[in-house]
Design a protein that fits this description.
about 140 residues, mainly alpha
């Protein structure tokens, strides 16, 4: 059950939902009842899959940008596209960062970033974040 809870929190945290998977991961690590390797794997897979949902939404979102209910103004959408165009797929290395990471993955889909490259870079970024969290748990940075 703990792996499923971690997966859901990691998946949701990677979407535009305001969830935190780090707290769930750290709690499960402290409890010591789950294998740390599997916890890191489940958190990474869940978080990457959530980012893939954002990428897919980004692919489809352009069809709705002229609708009244669309939540982002045309100038803000263009600004985001310009920033992504300037930094390109390297900006996906920041996909793990709270607040800005989720929109970056959405814009990557909007900019029609190649899915294989997207998946590789986002997986590196997300796994790196969870490995860092594990390092904090182990006390490697104190």
């Amino acid at each position: 059950m703990s792996y499923f809870l971690l997966f859901l929190s990691a998946f949701g945290a990677a979407t535009l939902l305001p969830l935190q998977s780090e707290a769930v991961l750290m709690t499960l690590l402290v409890q010591g009842m789950s294998n740390p390797f599997y916890l890191l794997l489940v958190a990474t897979v869940g978080n990457v899959l959530g980012s893939c949902v954002n990428w897919w939404l980004g692919l489809k979102i352009e069809h709705y940008k002229d609708k009244k209910w669309f939540p982002v103004s045309e100038p803000r959408l263009q600004q985001a596209q310009q920033i992504y165009h300037k930094y390109g797929f390297y900006s996906l290395l920041l996909s793990w960062v709270p607040i800005i990471g989720d929109p970056i993955t959405l814009i990557a889909g909007l900019m029609k970033e190649h899915f294989g490259r997207f998946l590789l870079i986002v997986t590196i970024a997300k796994a790196g974040r969870y490995l860092f969290m594990y390092g904090l748990y182990l006390g490697l940075f104190s």
